[in-house]
Specification:
Blueprint (H helix, E strand, L loop, with lengths): L1 H10 L1 H22 L16 E5 L4 H8 L1 H10 L4 E5 H13 L13 H8 L1
Length: about 120
């Protein structure tokens, strides 16, 4: 069975990629739910394209590189108190605060500027 699946994936790379994307998205939703929902814990952003898992004590990049995405997500499910969901902007601000001691106030887009309205319309 294993060889058949491997051969099928080689013959049908587009279908295999679509299946992988759906499975990864379902798994991410499960992880977000374990962490309190698919919203940034800092600013409330809910666009899942911008959400990331934040390692509260740092070291996420090294952990992903060493263990891979799926193993890290399984760790998140096992120890949710060590992680939270942040958008990319708030995650970067958290990193700057942790590493350099620099604090930033992150405010959601209000839609007053033309560029902000265009981003919100997407």
């Amino acid at each position: 069975m294993r060889n058949y699946m491997r051969e099928w994936r080689i013959r049908n790379p587009d279908k295999a990629s679509a299946i992988d994307r759906r499975a990864k998205k379902k798994f991410k939703i499960r992880v977000y739910t374990a962490l309190g929902g698919a919203a940034c814990a800092s600013c409330g952003q809910t666009d899942d394209r911008t959400l990331e898992i934040n390692h509260k004590n740092g070291g996420g990049g090294k952990e992903y590189g060493r263990l891979g995405w799926k193993v890290v997500m399984l760790r998140v499910l096992k120890h949710p108190a060590d992680y939270n969901v942040l958008c990319r902007v708030c995650n970067a601000a958290d990193y700057l605060k942790r590493v350099f001691g620099v604090s930033y106030k992150i405010e959601p887009l209000t839609g007053t500027a033309p560029a902000a309205r265009e981003l919100l319309a997407r």
